[in-house]
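Proteins fold reproducibly. Look at a sample protein:
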Amino acid sequence: TVSGSTGDGISIFSDITAPLVQNVNLNSSISGNTVQNNGGNGVSLGNDLYAHVGQVYNPEEAVVAQNGQSLTATLENSSIVNDLWDNKVNSNGQMGVQLLNELSAEYQGLGGNLPAVTVSVINSGITNCLTGNSIGRNAFTGALIENMVNVSAYINNGTIDVFTGNIAGSSIANNLLNNVVNKNGDEGVNNLNRVSGYAGGGYGGGISQAAINIASSQITNLFSDNSSISENGSTGLVSVNHFEAGTGLIFIPYAPDITSAITGSGISNTIENNSLDLNGGDGANVVNIFEAGSVTGFTINNLLAHNTVTGTANQAQPDRAVAQAEFADGIFLVNAGHASTLIDTLAVTNSLSGNTVQDHTDTGIILVNEFSVGQGRFRAAEDGQQPALPSATITGATIVNNLTDNRVTGNGFDGAELFNQFIATGFADMSDLVLAIENSHISNTLENNQFNGNGDDGLDLFNDIHINAGVGYFSNVLADIKGSSINNTMAANAMNRNGGQGVFADSFIDIVGFVTDPSAAFTGSICTASINGSYRDNEAANNGDNGVLSFDTISITADGGEGPVGIAQADLLTNFNAAIVDAVMSDSLVNNSITGNGFTGAELSYFTEPAPSLGSTVDIFMERNRVQQNGGDGVFIESFGQGSFTANLGDAAAGTGGFNSFTGNGGFDLNNFSDLPITAENNWWGQDTGPAAGQINNPGSVDADPWLTAAP
């Protein structure tokens, strides 16, 4: 029992520094302790393994660089392991548990001229296990866990001709099982993990060439069966995981030849069977990030299953010190990555199953997937010298979101928001530039979920496969999207009594060129691309706005930019070339109940530009839907710029579609806004004589005969 200390209750710090750190293991085990009422942290552990060369503040701890000498620092086959179980860490003046761990190989130089410096972390790892602990009523965070695997060089008043930093076969793993983390002043659990390499410098320092490589390394987090991470002053569970192979070239007087790559690495989070209730901030906040010159074979896997995540919006909790923040979400999950030239074979999978997410002041679930290549984010020299970027490509990338059996109700804003984006961006000035997104796919599958009684929309789906090209003086830009798709599949979901839309799906496959000079040439092509929606056995009823709202866009546009010369599209006709080939937008609605919504029952809109695009197709299919008693139109269909259009709302001769019920809506039961040919046979219009005057907009383009003489 450790109680009443003015500092930390238990404090253990281990630090090993040498040019070669090999087969070294730092292990800490803390169990069965009661640590309470101390002025500092309850438990503080700090473990550092440094492979270190260069001139440092304590030069006796490392090799000191001499002019003309090459240096190597290596950390390999080493580990840090912390095991904490069955402890009671309560009511301490700062944090309950603080774990700070670092594996590092680095060079720090204050002078000298070196031909080469190589620093490496190989086959080494950090593991933290917290099991069966009670961590409560501490003044700040309940458990803070910070882990870093790092290679770096920092040079001031000297030079390195060639710097190489390598991380290979290394890992960070955190396991939190069967803990209770309650009523702490800040976050319940704050877990921060970083695998990084960088080369930096100060005034007068210089690196001519730098190569940063991270390979076959992993960050893995398991948060399972924690009976309560609840009633904390801020977010219940925070997990931030970051891979970075970059430069950070601050104050270096010239931009070096830099390469940086992440290959065969990944991040995995499993969050299951936890109670994340009544926290002052978000219930769970998980962020996964990568940054590098090129990224190949990276994986991100998130599983959130059978958690309860309840906010305070509709809960009376007199024991709480603070109410939930105004804009607090239930689950906030972000996956993001940027590479300057290439993202290849990226696989992102998010699975949310059996969670209850309710009564938060803002949105129940926010899921963001955003991955980009090109200029604009990758860090280069601050003096403005940016490495040449002849091309930027995303290829073979997938985003897969699976939401099954979740209950998302009573949240102050939207029930769930899913944002998915692939972006290629760049600017060409007096040069050639190629931007491409190839064979990359976004997939959203939602089955048997409840998105009910939320303040705004029940469910929002935003998807974008996008190229943004700046076209400058005397440049030649080629932008290409091919073999890529967006797919939304919804089955047996309930989206009822929300303040806004039941479901809003907004999907884009598009190329935008901002042209600032008439001498530039811009060519854009979209080939074998598709946006597909499938809605089956869903219920969207009594929402304040539309029941189902879907916008699909496939487009290539060019316009004047923000530069000194704005070029209107009319002036670009000889330099602007656009081609859309084998592009499809389709929606299938089968056996849905879309009733009693405040505005339109189902609105389906399709846009293609430039128009007409002969290589684009719109395909709509509806069968056995009940679209009744909505305040506006029952079904609203518009389509502009497509090459071909097919709308099968019932084809008696083919024996497909139809058997829909279009009755009792406040506007048109079927609004054919674009006056395109629609087949709507074998449907029920509320009377055995077929559709009456005022039930169909542009009836001359709608084939509704034969009709049903009784409700299906």
About this structure: Residues 171 and 218 are 5 Å apart (CA to CA). The chain has a mean pLDDT of 89.
